[in-house]
Amino acid sequence: MTKKIEVGSLTHEIPKTQAEKLIDTVNRKADESKTSTESRSQHKAKGSLKSKHRTMLIKPKTDDYLKAIATIYGTSVNEVINQALDAYVAIKLQDPEIGSKIKLLQEIQIKD
Q: Where is composition skewed (Basic and acidic residues) in this entry (predicted)?
């Protein structure tokens, strides 16, 4: 990746700096993230999901990383946390023992 500088009939190409390469990466990731965020918003708009409010304490260092990740992907900290929690739950649901316990808990809650 280079920058092309033209002065009259002279042309000179300057390689991009690390900072410029990082900015290009962030912009590319932001475009990709907007597409996935839009599809999630559309899914919520259909009424199949209703968001819940939770309050939690996050370590300052973890919060700093969450902010940085959100900035890199051009999304919100809330979306980064939701994606992380979705991935965690998906992994837990693959464990047959956990899955059966969740089903049992759901049956108990339905009867109440």
A: 28-41
Question: Of all helices (H) and strands (E), which one includes residue 90?
Answer: helix 77-93
Over the stretch 80-99, which tens digit does the pLDDT of each residue have? 999 999 999 999 989 999 98
d(CA 44, CA 46): 5
Taking the whole predicted model, whether its pTM rises above 0.70 is answered as: no
Task: Give the DSSP per-residue string, 15-70.
Answer: EPPHHHHHHHHHHHHHHHHHHHHHHHHHHHHTTS-----------HHHHHHHHHHH
Secondary structure (3-state) at 8: coil
**Does 30 reside within a domain?**
no
C-alpha closest to that of 75 among 29, 44, 42, 39: 29
Q: How many domains does the chain have?
A: 1
